[in-house]
Design a protein that fits this description.
alpha/beta; Rossmann fold; nine-stranded mixed sheet; five-stranded mixed sheet; 27% helix; globular
């Protein structure tokens, strides 16, 4: 494990995990939900496995959350305590040192009873639960997705199969936040499964990331599309002979970003997908097979995917519907939310909320989120389709399309655009560019230029914030 100038072997890490687990057991943490609030650092990795070794259940917490958000999670999960580095202060409560053994400095904050809220309705069997990961909450209050030890192990195994990972020979760049399911599974647990290394990086500073990759002989970079877009604009690139693979997920990968990155780095990006509720990895464009830009590829080994209608009936190929997933990695339900669980998890299938298609070769594509689809004059408009065409304009660096109310049509598309440096764009010019490429009712009726799109910590654009900005 590489973190800055520190390198820990598996034996070193195991010793720190054991010491921390012993301290947690002494504090009565077995069988309890324990928060873990840390950036990508040694404390996160050691704390994660120590909680599990002590018989607790991990609740990863984004260290950038506000106090009210942390209080909500503490009450919803009925947290016993929260582990964190000493640089993070939580809940206005007194933190004490749990383990201080160079290079680790891990503190623990007990959750005051007054902040825990009413006792939640826990599932009957918690013995199998390993983590409770709160979803990003782009459409409302975050929900705690419960994943078992078996689900996490299965997801790590299929990540290794899908990426053709070489036992003992990989180094996974971990700049995606570990409190999110993507990095926790595809980087940290994946590395453990194939006895390989991880390179922990707290912040995405592109030149620094590449320098650290060169120094650590990194082999696999996993990132969101926005990271690849930044990489594609860099100059004076370091040589990284060990770098063999690029994986994208967490958000749709625009074709122009994929093409620009490949042209600069002579390396393709393999796009995949998977919601938290599925462990999360579900699919990827196959290594050694055909890469279909704009698709999330084929299901990983042991994963079943299909396109369904509202009644969960399978639809024919090339028909738009909702993507449903059945996998040993699927979650067991949402904490304290039986109605949401019953809606999302049906007969072993997870309704992902993604609108998509399956082509004749079995490749899946995500067209939109069900909540992001527009209905213009009774006709479905998929925001991602409009975004793909707007992205082709030479003045556009990034775009997000949302629906805005319209008295005549119900709603119409509005485009939020981050222009390229020095470029300008008007609505009239954008309409001229799109005319003949898109149906007229799909062309944005509003254009809003902005310096950056609002995103959550995993790179997803917060379309709720964009919609709210129009009111």
């Amino acid at each position: 494990m590489h973190a800055g100038d520190t390198i820990l072997s598996y034996a070193d890490t195991d010793a720190l995990v054991s010491a921390t687990a012993a301290a947690l057991r002494a504090r009565g943490c077995a069988g309890r939900f324990i928060g873990l609030c840390a950036p990508n650092c040694l404390e996160f990795v050691v704390g994660y496995f120590a909680i599990l070794r002590a018989g607790g259940m991990v609740v990863p917490i984004n260290p950038k959350l506000g106090a009210d958000e942390i209080v909500y999670i503490a009450g919803d999960a009925h947290l016993h305590s929260i582990l964190h580095p000493p640089t993070i202060a939580l809940l206005d409560a007194a933190a004490t040192s749990l383990v201080t053994a160079a290079p680790l400095d891990l503190h623990i904050t007990p959750v005051p009873a007054a902040l825990q809220g009413s006792a939640p309705t826990f599932p009957h069997n918690l013995a199998a639960i390993a983590v409770c990961i709160y979803t990003s909450g782009t459409t409302g209050r975050p929900k705690g997705a419960l994943l078992t030890h078996a689900a996490l192990l299965h997801n790590a195994r299929i990540c290794a199969l899908g990426l053709q990972s070489r036992t003992g020979a990989e180094c996974f760049v971990t700049v995606l936040p570990l409190f999110h399911a993507f990095a926790a599974s595809a980087c940290m647990l994946h590395a453990l499964w194939c006895a390989s290394r991880i390179l922990l990086i707290e912040q995405f500073q592109p030149h620094d990331v590449l320098r650290q990759m060169a120094r650590a002989n990194a082999t696999v970079f996993l990132g969101v599309p926005a990271m690849y877009a930044v990489f594609a604009q860099l100059d004076a690139l370091p040589v990284i002979p060990s770098w063999r693979l690029c994986i994208a997920g967490g958000a749709p990968l625009p074709a122009p970003v994929s093409e620009a990155f490949t042209a600069k780095f002579s390396m393709p990006i393999y796009e995949g997908d998977g919601p938290t509720e599925c462990g999360p990895a579900t699919s990827i464009n196959p290594l050694g097979g055909a890469i279909k830009i704009g698709t999330i590829g084929l299901p990983l080994p042991g994963v079943e995917m299909r396109i369904v209608d509202d009644a969960l009936q399978t639809l024919p190929d090339n028909t738009v519907g909702e993507i449903a997933v059945r996998s040993p990695s699927n979650f067991t339900g949402y904490l304290n939310q039986p109605a949401e669980t019953a809606h999302t998890l049906v007969n072993g299938w997870v309704r992902t909320g993604d609108v998509g298609t399956r082509d004749q070769d079995g490749y899946f594509s995500i067209i939109d989120r069900t909540k992001d689809m527009l209905i213009v004059g009774g006709l479905n408009v998929y925001s991602r389709e409009v975004e793909e065409y707007v992205c082709r304009h030479p003045a556009v660096q990034e775009v997000a399309v949302v629906g805005v109310p319209d008295e005549l049509r119900g709603e119409v598309p509005a485009a939020f655009v981050v222009p390229r440096a020095g470029a300008t764009l008007t609505l009239a010019e954008l309409k001229r560019f799109l005319r003949g490429k898109l149906a007229l009712y799909k062309i944005p009726r509003q254009l809003h230029l902005c310096e950056a799109l609002p995103r959550n910590t995993t790179g997803k654009v917060l379309k709720t914030a964009l919609r709210a900005s129009l009111h």
